[in-house]
């Protein structure tokens, strides 16, 4: 039984990961900005769970939330696993991008994960064990038009994770990455609504287009990503990177 902190846990991949880990007997700290959604999630889980309000773009929020998390974890063996899942995507042509957009993408997709790793890795190293899985994206491995700032932030997360995994070698702490292509999440649904307003196409048409863009020809399910995260946490080698493109079902994802 391991205690895991999951960011971005109120919906999508984060909520699916919380459910998967709880079903496997682990204790979950589910972190996100909205307490109401977190309470509903934690009430639905099979095992012990703590809803934790945290805004990963705000260092002060991270600090105060970690105090609460550490107090909860102290009697339960400490935080041994970390899943950095919080993220956001915004689109804009590079000719119309601005400083604020670039800053938002870096804060939520890179700096939040970096700050949490810097806060929790020392304790894992002292204990001689631990695991971190960062949820990046295929946008951390390739470039996509109109989301340059998002791609840059995810590339930063991938590069940082690889560097930290090299530093953790021989310290008993494992750092892994999962890089899914388009996933069927509320964030994707919100993006489709925005795209529909700009393109004169329906969300259903755009959804089919995104599915066709995945090599497997379908959207990946949050449960598939959660299965990979669970596997990386429990038995993944340090430095592992798993790219999910929908070509084959994973675990119980379908």
Radius of gyration: 18 Å
What oligomeric state best describes the polypeptide chains here? single chain
**What's the N-to-C terminus distance?**
26 Å
Strand fraction: 5-15%
Helix content: 40-55%
CATH fold-level assignment: Rossmann fold
Largest sheet descriptor: 7 strands, parallel
Number of domains: 1
Number of strands: 7
Q: What is the helix tally?
A: 8
Features:
single chain, 254 residues, Rossmann fold, seven-stranded parallel sheet, 7 strands
Explain the overall architecture:
It is a single chain. With 254 residues, the protein is of the alpha/beta class. The chain has one domain: NAD(P)-binding Rossmann-like Domain (Rossmann fold). The chain has 8 helices and 7 strands, in the order E-H-E-H-E-H-E-H-E-H-E-H-H-H-E. Strand 2 (27-32), helix 2 (35-44) and strand 3 (49-53) form a beta-alpha-beta unit. The radius of gyration is 18 Å and the shape is globular. The two termini are 26 Å apart. The model has no long low-confidence stretch (mean pLDDT 94).
Please outline the helices and strands.
Blueprint: E1 3-6, H1 12-23, E2 27-32, H2 35-44, E3 49-53, H3 59-74, E4 81-84, H4 99-127, E5 130-135, H5 148-168, E6 173-180, H6 186-199, H7 203-213, H8 222-235, E7 241-244
Parallel strand pairs: 1-2, 1-4, 2-3, 4-5, 5-6, 6-7
Helix pairs in contact: 1-8, 4-5, 6-7
Provide a brief overview of the structure.
The protein is an alpha/beta fold and 254 residues long.
